[in-house]
Amino acid sequence: MPNSKPAQHYHDIDGMRSVLMFLSVALHAATVYAPARPWITSNAQRHEFFDWVIFGLHLVITPTFFFVGGIFTVLMLARRTPGRFLRNRFMRTVVPLIAIALSFNMLEHYLRWNDKTGDSGLMRWIESGGFAQIWVSGEWSLHLWFLVSLVPMFIFSAIVQAAIPKGAAIRTGALRMVGRAAGWLKSSWAFALFVLALAAANTVNFAVASQVPGGYDLLFPGFQSWYKLISEFPFFVLGVAAALSPSLLDRLRTWRAWMPFAAVLAFAFQPYANPDQGFAAGMAMLFLNQLAIWTLVLFLIQFFYRHFSNDSLRTRWLADSALSMYLFHHCLVYIYGRGFTHVEWPIALEWALLTVAAAATVILFHETMVRRFALLRLLFNGKTDVAAIRKAPGFWQSFGLPGVKRANGNVSGAGGKPAV
User: Fold this and answer.
1) Residue 404 DSSP class
2) Separation CA 163–CA 401 (nearest Å)
């Protein structure tokens, strides 16, 4: 039987995930103007600044998503059997993944094919070899590769939960080890060494994964490679460990005065390894890259806990709309980006307008469609709570009026629970 203790809500973690999903809009809008991505629309106006924006946001957004995924996996498995957990993840992850892949992602692929070939024939595109290649190569997922990678991690977690009894020595030993690690992280020096150790572990993980024969090949058509799956797994694992050990999560959340400066340096310099470097230089840059990633992820954890740990109407609305923002924005960025192709405005202004237009369209669609119609709520958010969410405060109520706290910490007028 699943654990009957009440659900624990981490509003800072949920808020962090939601804000990063909104930041993804700015990231993908920057691809329209980035020289490193000339295949994104045919816009001739480009500037290296947007490469810097993309590479910097990539350092932190996706790894943090996997960390959050690990935390929520433990929270859900504490309240559900492995079977019910997988059913929940199928509804909340696989159903929206399939729905967007078949609709908005295919629309974007069709528009890209149209722009490249000048052929507007929908059936000719479907009958072309390029259409089949989209599915075989895994390109169908576009920005949804994050959800694709999470699915096997969910399955693996459910198998572990089912296979290892709660009182098993390996389970209690792992919890004891995590608790001891948390005890070592009281001082800033120990925490700094911990960050270095995480970066070293990731570097070894990449080095080993790169030596696996066929590690860069797709595990099966339309899926992902072993290398891509394993590269994000350490962030998921730390999220699992943090959820299992409240003391470890407390240490990760503890504000360190030097972390903002370290995070600024990491984002500013953005170390990346490249094929032109020798082995030693490449490994050093890989280590610095992973160090930058862990620094940014851990800084965000501390920042959101310090400033956004309270429940509010805004955090609840953000949590509810985050998946819609993640799913829909990519195609809208491409559509609006095409519209700016022949506009001669300053590209910084175009980028800002493109970001706002895509985000505003998703908000409008979420408010008027996903929150109002049961089928759309199911297909694109994986939920069946449309009756309850209709009564919950929407965008204007959540951001137009301050949340009123009750004595028990709940938000007046907010319905439902933060999404996991």
Assistant:
1) -
2) 48
